[in-house]
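Lay summary

Proteins are chains of building blocks that fold into shapes. Our project writes down both the chain and a compact code for its shape. Here are two examples, one after the other.
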Amino acid sequence: MCTGCVQKQYPDRGHTCLENGSYLMNFLGCANCHQRDFVLISDRTMVNEDEDEDEEEIVTYLHMCKNCDHVIARQEYTFTVVDDYQEYTMLCMLCGKAEDSISVLPDDPRQTAPLF
């Protein structure tokens, strides 16, 4: 992947996990052709690790320069179900790194205030 195309490598995105798209605020421009244009998504693959339960899904794709097909970064997004929580992760030199966890229950047990 290309460190010359991004302002910051793997910026911390907190809980923002994206299954597709590009974080253009971090895109300096193509280090190969020196153009700052749209970023294409290429070679997108989706894999379900557990076909019966749909408990893990991995999406990968490449961010590429629209003008010269230079590979800017590779993105990996994962979705898993662990106990009563949906877990999301994202790792990409352009879009950053992030993790999130959401309860599948109507009321998240982690969000309840203690009574005492």
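And here is the second example, written the same way.
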Amino acid sequence: MARLALNEFEAGYLGQRADEGDLFFDLGMMYATGRSVAIDLVAAHKWFNLACLRGKQAAKTYREEIAGELSKTQLAQALASARSFLADKR
């Protein structure tokens, strides 16, 4: 499976903040609502999933809500993207 690189917007945004849980949650909200980026529920799920892993409990509700709107294929893409992100951070 190909590695999924961060887009330029995400890379710049990630470099701005120290608290990853809050940062990932904010990215999830941006993709879920279309604030500053196009709405992308797969990307939103990815970022909410990562925020959950960093202890951001509020992200769990949003992640579950979005999962209900995704196809199985889209959900698999979101999960693979989160795993790829974590693997790239090692």
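What can we say about the second shape? The chain has one domain: 8-89.
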